[in-house]
Amino acid sequence: MTVVELKGVSKQFRGGTLALQGIDLTVEPREFVSLIGPSGCGKSTLLRVIGDLIPPSEGTATVNGKTAERARRDRDYGIVFQQAVLYDWRTVAKNIELPLELLNWDRRRRKERVAEMLDLVELGGFEGHHPWQLSGGMQQRVAIARALSFEPALLLMDEPFGALDEMTRERLNSELLRIWAETGSTVVFVTHSIPEAVYLSTRVVVMSARPGRIAEVIDIDLPQPRESEIREDARFFELVTRVREALIRGGVEA
Amino acid sequence: MPGRATAERIGTFLAVLGVLWGAWEGWRWLGSHYHLTWPFTVNDTTMPHLHRIIQALFQPAQANGPSLLHILLNASAFTAKEAALGFALGAVGGFAIAVVLLQSRFLERGIIPYVVASQTIPLLAIAPMVIVGLESKFGGTLSAWECVSVLAAYLTFFPVTINALRGLQSADPRAVELMRSYAANRWRILWKLQAPASLPYLFSAFRIAAPLAIVGAIISEPSASIQDGLGGAIVNFNQYYSIEPQELWATNVISALLGIVFFLAVVFAERAIVRRAPENTA
After folding, report:
1. Looking at beta carbons, which residues of chain B come within 8 Å of A99?
2. Sheet holding A32-36: strands in order across?
3. What is the reported pTM?
4. Which of A21, A130, B97, B258 might form a disulfide with A211, Cβ 3.0–4.6 angstroms?
């Protein structure tokens, strides 16, 4: 079953800004789709429409065959923002546990799942730490663990590594691919980094700005599973160039 | 090293106390030596020696009676009981009002002016109404000191409401978005996110409200005809001020100490409860 289906989605904000216009997009199970475009192209807005955090002005958003609102109420997706948005007064373990508390899981089941998630994001031993004691990359790993803790079929990520340094970003990219493969989830990923989009995705959706429209969709046919060395592959560079040219055609100087 | 920090604090406290003591006695000496009449005439009535005030604490207030300190400590315990209940009522009530106001901008804009206006009415003006009102309704079940607590709460709820509202609104908007993504309803968002986010603001309000609870209790005691508390003691020693000024002064010192004890209780509770990033600690 199609995970995300957008039909004719437009979004006009109250001030009159047309953030999105006529967006048609489908995302199939196990896909990793990146939305890339210049700032102000509405890619974050589009992600929020999928998550039913912003209503579209026109068109429909369907998630797992349901309205986006129904899907949100059924907790069909987990979301990760550019900032980790961890609760300072909670430990790492309690932060990961937050959605499970809201789902009324019993204590034992919560503890078990938190331990699994700590393993998944390789943060064993940090469960008792508070967020401010962690590096930016570790905080973002906690946010990913929190988003995945209740096993949503869909993971929405809004520039999750945008605030991190290049080395940390590349390491977390590989880690995300491993987690994606292990959990079998579907990912919609917003980024403004071309290499990041190419490295992670099965498909890259290139958007143009004002109003935000889909300029081009590029299939990324790099083999799976991807190792970091693929970044030095000739095919990788070809695809980076294709995305870059699509962005320029869409009206951006990359 | 916590031991050294504590020693430094005590040292600072004693140094400031010494300077204040010196200033009092210095002004006293200047005033009486040069017969100053401005801004007031200095003599044993207007400015008793500080050591006389301390001495008065250890002497019986009436012939063969218990020491003044003994009387004042009993009065402090009584007033502390009223103030503690008043503080609790004010804190819970103040927070509850903030939660109601949080629900809509309309409510906030409409009701805040009345919350502010409530504080411009002197406690003395509403004390008789509250006491008579409460006694006619709950005369059998509510004792006079509990009426005083209600009046103390009238003073303490205000800073709590104002700060709690700001604190509840201080939650990161992205964190609210995150809670919405989990389909958390309004009450879960309140308890899991907004209430914990408001704690630092709430404790700032409690620091102000704790001494206010003491003030509210002291002021309200005479209206409730209570003799057993510090308010009663102040009214009593007022009458003898021209003969025994040091007794009223001593009462004021004990009242101030009680306010400080309440303040410190809030500070220690805050340290035990509020977890936050070290760079955010005041």
Report:
1. 182
2. A77-80, A154-158, A186-191, A32-36, A203-208, A213-219
3. 0.85
4. A21
